[in-house]
Amino acid sequence: MIRLMLVDDEPLAVNYLADALLELEVFEVEIVKAYSALEALQKLGEGKVDILLTDIRMPGMSGMELADHVRGQWPRCRIIFLTGYDDFGYAQSAIRKGGIDYILKTEGDEAIIRAIHLALDDIAKELDREDILKKSREQLHVAVPSLQRDYLLQLAQGEVDAFDVRIRRFAELNIGLDAGLPVQIALGRIDEWGSFVLPGDKALLYYSVQNIAEEYLQMTLNFTAFPYDRGRFVWLVQSRVAGEGGPEEEQLGKRLVGHFELIQNATKSLLKVPISLILAAAPCRWEDVPARVESLKIQLAGGASNGQEILMSELPEAGGEERRSSRDFFAENDLRAYLRNLDLLETYLDNGEREACRSLFAELDAKASALSTGQEGDFLRLELVSNLTTFLITYVNKRRLASLVSTAFRLEALIGLPVHADLSSTVRQLAALAESLAEYNGQKRAERTTDMIGRIQHYVNKFLNEELSLTKLSELVHLSPPYLSRMYKQETGQGLLEYITEVRMIRSKQLLRTTDHKVQEIAALVGIDSAAYFTRLFKKETGATPQEYRESAAK
């Protein structure tokens, strides 16, 4: 919704122009009227101003000064200056102030309409999709390092894209590795933070360690790094020799261990910080990165008794313990990745989306059913149930919904749900709780929406002769004007301004039938300043002028 402010110290000029614009119905704008620059400043705090159409010469404060104030709060506001003086000096000043146009009042309505069209076109161009995309592309390189880290962290945590998608994302984010070749992984840990104790210092330390690593590795290897959590980081390395399995790949591990020793020494001497490193036994496929990172985390945690400045290679699986099947690994990985969608569940619950909740739980049930039988599978199912239960209890506590839950779901049941053979039943019980929460929230949202519409309609009927702009009504229900406009039409099937006009016509008919008020008096009583505009609007809505309606009603 475009907001246009009309400012002139001649009320007749403001009202006439506002009526003319409303009658033309060529602009989807909200018109705000002010009869002085000082009044315009007061209304400036009520919301944004997209276009300012102002007289230049006004008592107290000129239009030029007003333009400075408006631009101070809304730098993108388009300004159109009106004046009755054909003064070239004013025109020059208007251009310097960034005015869209400079119009003599004697030029008539058509010139003003053209100027507003130009302003609207300028706003549209600024918001042009291609222009936005172009600016985004120009700014993307600034955000690339952060986007790289986010993408690689998600990959390391189990969200591995399909091959073609991964190839495209690597290219888009300029990740200096080959998404189609195996990658060598190393996991690092900050053993002591030293003087890097503040959050900003810790980020600086991560970058400093990464820069040291790059100095030693990037001359002969492709290398990238990202923080994994508060104390650990991941390094990804590939040989620059095409292919895999050759002598270069066989020697890669030995070369890296030598480099890592140098990097450890450098971080200790330059940054006064000890770090530990563990290197994967061999390069792996990108699909296997999450499992390798998990293995490295576990082994580094128990790597040596002193616990500092560890430098080790990944150990083989413990003797006698069979390596998990790829099916078990992918089932576990898939489950954990999907559990990270619980932030979506929170949105579904808040929005009252029962079907979306049901679909999410059905997907979780399917993934849990793919887990293996036996002790490991049981513990993974316990992890699933614990995560869901904790999430729902936290949600209930944060939203103060304990009384609602306690009437439909025993608290003891939440901590005693079975995780073995009856897992599907357990998931269904938790899904039922989630759906009941979503249903409750949906009803409350509907009630709040109905209440807001009722309050707006009551206000319109009670204060019909006062200002009923979208901005004023939106303040009543604490919503933005554009959202209020969309919400009202979506819920009632009628635009809010259409409803206000309908109420005005109903009240006007009543006054014409039951009183002897003059037409201009009735116009004022229903909130329309101009009797001429009221007459035109009344005829448009009813097919008759106010006087014709009064005469026909008296027969």
UniProtKB/TrEMBL annotation:
Keywords: DNA-binding, Phosphoprotein, Transcription, Transcription regulation. GO terms for biological process: phosphorelay signal transduction system. Pfam families: HTH_18 (PF12833), Response_reg (PF00072). The modification 4-aspartylphosphate is found at residue 55. Residues 3-120 form the Response regulatory domain. Residues 454-552 form the HTH araC/xylS-type domain. InterPro entries: CheY-like_superfamily, Homeodomain-like_sf, HTH_AraC, HTH_AraC-typ_CS, Sig_transdc_resp-reg_receiver, Tscrpt_reg_AraC-type_HTH. CDD domains: REC_YesN-like. Coiled coil: none annotated. One of its GO terms (molecular function) is sequence-specific DNA binding. PANTHER family: ARAC-FAMILY TRANSCRIPTIONAL REGULATOR (PTHR43280), HTH-TYPE TRANSCRIPTIONAL ACTIVATOR RHAS (PTHR43280:SF28). This is Response regulator.
